[in-house]
Amino acid sequence: MIESEARPDSTDIEAQSAWVPELQAALGGVLVGQEALARSLTLGLLTGGHVLLEGVPGLAKSLAVSCLARAVHGTFSRLQFTPDLLPSDLVGTEIYNAKESNFTVRQGPIFANFVLADEINRAPAKVQSALLEAMQEGHVSIGGESMDLPDPFLVLATQNPIEQEGTYPLPEAQLDRFALKVVVEYPSREEELTIMDRMSRTAPKMEVPRVVELSTITEARTLVDRVAVDPRLAGYIVDLVGATRNPAAWGLADLETRIQYGASPRASIWLALTARANAFLEGRGYVTPTDIKAVATEVLRHRIMPTFEAEAEGLTSDDLVRRILDTVPLP
User: CATH number of 227-327: 1.10.940.10, 3.40.50.1820, 2.40.30.10, 1.10.8.80?
Assistant: First the structure.
């Protein structure tokens, strides 16, 4: 059983997750019909995993992130990515102080607990690299001085999938740095009526109460690390990821020409960790196959690259993940 300490019981989890319903209610007071998005953001919060949100404009991606930051007692910064952005606009720079004849560091917006990177695919490669390096290392260098980022540090990035003019798509290796990729869909008719009623005002109310402290999040993460993963389920996770690299070994020979690149071992790590967090949200101290399947698509969809043949057939990475989940046998 993969665990670092004794498995937490339901009483421990109930005590440490009391803030979760309050957070969901706070987000639901502003967002309409985005329960799945709110849950995915909570998974990122519990695991420390950075989240990439993809959807057409106007689906409240940025609003969801800013609401999450308001609900958690942490610092928040938003950066609108544009083609003329420089790395120093993100991480900060040195400013010469003529009075004292020295340089002082002016920290950039990345020095916050929650960083909203809006339309990340509009930033040039150097800015994307600076952000993704900070995501991986947890610190940045300014003027030769290494500076730690706040703890916790969570990047929530958005991108628009339908407009490619003037954009710089993230390379697959950089996409792999995101724990989850969440696709935000259109609301239903009833949900859109509610949105229109709530937001079609000159000054719509978007009050989000602060319901949880950063220290509480840290304590919850410690408990998530103790959620148990049975060795058979650990093997199942590795088999799922392995099937993206060698589908023929799992009776999916037709996917050999439809998957260009499979998922890296980082996918196995995040699949196990987010499954633990999902079990925590369900009030359990152990992972079940349902937990793994619940998070598999968001963990794997940006780590599998369909071939041109797959795209010509209208197959998406979600379709490929679904085939693998339906085929790889449970232990």
Answer: 1.10.8.80
